[in-house]
Model the fold of this input.
Amino acid sequence: MLLEVRSLTKRFGGLEALKSVDIGIEGGEIVGLIGPNGAGKTTLFNCITGFHWADEGSISFDGKDITKLSPPSICRMGICRTFQVVKPFGKMTVLDNVMVGAFSRASSTKEARDRSLEVLNFVGLAERKDQQARELTIADRKRLELARALATGPRLLLLDEVMGGLRPVEVKEMVALIRRINESGVTLLVIEHIMSAIMSVSDRIVVLNYGQKIAEGTPSEVARDPVVIKAYLGEDEARA
Ligand SMILES: Nc1ncnc2c1ncn2[C@@H]1O[C@H](COP(=O)(O)OP(=O)(O)OP(=O)(O)O)[C@@H](O)[C@H]1O
Ligand SMILES: [Mg+2]
Done:
């Protein structure tokens, strides 16, 4: 098991955002994480990446306990995430934004620059490398967010709604990019509300509702699960 989340509980005052959640991810998988607004999806990412510390439970990565490590240590171990609300450094160029990620591992400016150019090429943003990040379209900002994360050289990449706000054709491109990232050897945990996209890209899906894991299985198993349909998908989605 590459990532093992055991009995994880996270409270904010009286609110239990995660209630004894268990999730295991094997190396090489693409796992989808779905559930209604406020279900605890982003909170789980925050706990895995050390932005929040869980109140109970444990997280291990590649057999090592990372429950109480800091975000930089967790990043250096090979877990990186994107943010639901993308926050590029607007006045910096696209290349410089990606270099910020690359410096977490690179030992020289040249190495960071080379790594960043390679990643920009991979995500299809090479032609925009000298533009200011704030000039990018939403779709390109999402790609930039991905590039910045990839530049850290992750083994496990956590994507928080990288397809939100995209047009259907851009969603398709993003699905293709996620598959290519996976083929390059990166394991992925992907939060997404666009059902057609998450169902097509995931090997397995985990469903959260009010902080609890209510289902887990292949996309088709989850889409047919009455508990998931009632909590999240609705009848229309289940028929689609
Ligand atoms: N830093 C925080 N302080 C207090 N409450 C928080 C904090 N972060 C999240 N919460 C609460 O925890 C619950 C889970 O929030 P979270 O952001 O994890 O949901 P989500 O599944 O990512 O939802 P969405 O699909 O809307 O992004 C919500 O009730 C939210 O208000
Ligand atoms: Mg969220």
